[in-house]
Design the sequence.
């Protein structure tokens, strides 16, 4: 994934390959804006974004390879956990994706209405949707917010297993509970 642009926080030139990349900075430094540029929601003010060889703003096929898990949940409250990840998988052209196994490993009830979920359960549902269809690029905004230590441990184990095959960008205000070989990108 190549990203070269100017945006609110200043010019940035990144070339990210498979692994975990930690985007750390204070509130208002542009972490979420950067993620939204990387997934094609925003067009950078200058420069270019290339993911899987294409421009995520211009090419819908490129966007299928990218998942954004926003800091604030955006899934409709009337969906169940299973309905949410199944719909996202279908949108990515992966209706045969087995999210039920992952859901069970994360300890989230499939029939739970998102509107009735606790903050931690809701976060886990958002994570399930982000990984539905096995996208190559995971953009995870404040991934560990509202999660108890057990769920942090479960997600950390998953990310450790995926880091060889996927580009994983995680924003956070503090250190990540992952291995020392994560790339740290400070935004100020």
Sequence:
């Amino acid at each position: 994934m190549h990203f070269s642009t100017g945006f609110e926080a200043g010019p940035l030139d990144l070339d990210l390959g498979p692994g975990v990349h930690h985007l750390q900075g204070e509130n208002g430094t542009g972490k979420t804006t950067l993620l939204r540029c990387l997934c094609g929601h925003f067009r950078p003010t200058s420069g270019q974004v290339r993911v899987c060889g294409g421009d995520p703003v211009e090419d819908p096929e490129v966007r299928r390879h990218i998942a954004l898990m926003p800091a604030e949940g955006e899934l409709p409250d009337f969906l169940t956990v299973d309905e949410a990840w199944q719909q996202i998988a279908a949108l990515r052209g992966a209706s045969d994706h087995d999210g039920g196994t992952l859901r069970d490993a994360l300890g989230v009830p499939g029939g739970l209405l998102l509107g009735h979920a606790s903050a931690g359960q809701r976060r886990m549902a958002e994570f399930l949707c982000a990984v539905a269809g096995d996208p190559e690029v995971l953009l995870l905004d404040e991934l560990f917010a509202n999660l108890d230590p057990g769920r942090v441990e479960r997600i950390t184990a998953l990310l450790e297993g995926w880091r060889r095959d996927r580009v994983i960008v995680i924003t956070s205000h503090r250190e990540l509970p992952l291995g020392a070989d994560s790339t740290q990108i400070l935004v100020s």
In short: Residues 2-8 have pLDDT under 50 and may be disordered. The helical segments are 31-38, 60-63, 81-91, 99-106, 119-131, 149-162. The longest helix spans residues 149-162.
